[in-house]
Amino acid sequence: MNRLFVVSNRVPLPEKGAQAGGLATALQPLLEREGGVWFGWSGATAAKAAEQPARISHAGRVTYATIDLSKAEHDGYYANFANGVLWPLLHSLPEMMRFDRGDAETYFATNARFADTLVPLLQDEDLVWVHDYHFLPLPGLLRARGVANPIGFFLHIPFPSAEILALAPPAGKLIAALLQADVIGFQTSADLRNFAAAATTLTGARQIAAERLEIDGRRVQLGVFPAEIDAEEFAAAALRAARSPTVERLRRSLGGQCLILGVDRLDPTKGLVQRLAGYRRFLETEATWHRRVTFLQIAPVSRQDVASYQALRAELSQLAGEINSECGDPDWSPLRLITKGGPRTTLAGYMRAARVGLVTPLRDGMNLVAKEYVAAQDPEDPGVLVLSRFAGAAQQLDAALLVNPNDPDAIAEAIARALAMDLRERQTRWRAMWQAVTENSPLDWGLGFLRVLVQSASKPTAQVAPPHAKPLAPRHTPALHTPSNAIN
Ligand code: ADP
Ligand code: F6P
Fold first, then answer.
1. Distance 478 CA to ligand 1 centre (A)
2. Structural domains of the chain ordered from first start
């Protein structure tokens, strides 16, 4: 039986409690049910990080293996290169990129340290599933260390055009190393097409089929695997939370006003500045709604060690102050901006209470909040989702009011339209979206990816055989269990 070995920078260690982020939402149900090892960063920095072994802990069927980063690794690998170069470029926001060659070197070196720590933990039949932009070169670094296990990679965020990616000087090296994976998965078919084009432009890869590349005699399988939520479970949580004292307090505080809700990590890609501009335009043009609406934006702070995130926090506070002082009244504040997070279940209750869900990222790999908003609604009296057409979720949720997040007038019009929408139209749109969010679960998503990984890795040309590679063990269907003699 294959053991699942997940690698991601952020590891949702149970003792840390809930943290905002779609990666953990997507992966947690799979690991909790199927068991496996979750390997990555502990979230801490330590002076002698490189000398420490991986820290191992267990909860339920999941084994967590994490390492600390040194301050230099944290800054160069995580804050500056992953979040200051790759994050903006992959979201097609190149003007936000701040490149420094030293940071790129630290990124590769830190990936190599992750690889060095990981290799001794791996067993022959493990399926290795690497996640997200922090670890683009990891498949190549693992192969170089003799790892012959099936390696899959999933990108949770968008993939840009080859021209934009090429703005990062090591783009070709990154993609060449990533192509050592057997399967590379994306949120949408547009991301997959962009990747295939970048791979053929920046490396020696050839596209031999719509979803297959060939490089150095090896085949690399590409695939589209939209990340999912457990909609039924989220709906039940929303129903329970709606009756909780916390959500009841929010409802009372609204005094019968309609709630417009946004829930996003405080991140430049989430379009929060443009969203506030859209709301302001709405307030300026729709005076009849004054005192009848409140916009609650929950934006838990994120990546405060990255300068652009600190600047965004300050800018949003200023804009929120301006909206309330210039558009509000002595007895009415139109906007509440909250930078604290809260339990996901409470968020579910807030979503159910909201007449409008405002989800307008400038670009987003998927955006699970959009799916959660749909799942949280009362089928008899559902709210309306206003969704950026540049979120991956817009492919499945095309019954939302789709907007261009760069256009404050479009956001203002969509808010007005959502608030005025009659019950029948709200129900029709919601039913189509409910259908979409219940079609697949996070388990279907994860097992679907792993099935393709197992099939692809068992094909003779799919794997490299570096000099000291262990032979590939016979493949099984991915019934994934942590053997009792796994890391202990
Ligand atoms: P991203 O991955 O960019 O943060 P997503 O919308 O895809 O964006 O995913 C965010 C996830 O984080 C959602 O599942 C949401 O419910 C969850 N979340 C948001 N705020 C919190 C919070 N304070 N605590 C725990 N989970 C949160
Ligand atoms: O899904 C995008 C993502 O970057 C995840 O990789 C990450 O876990 C989450 O957002 C939150 O970001 P961070 O781990 O930097 O706090």
1. 28
2. 4-227+440-456 (3.40.50.2000), 231-437 (3.40.50.2000)
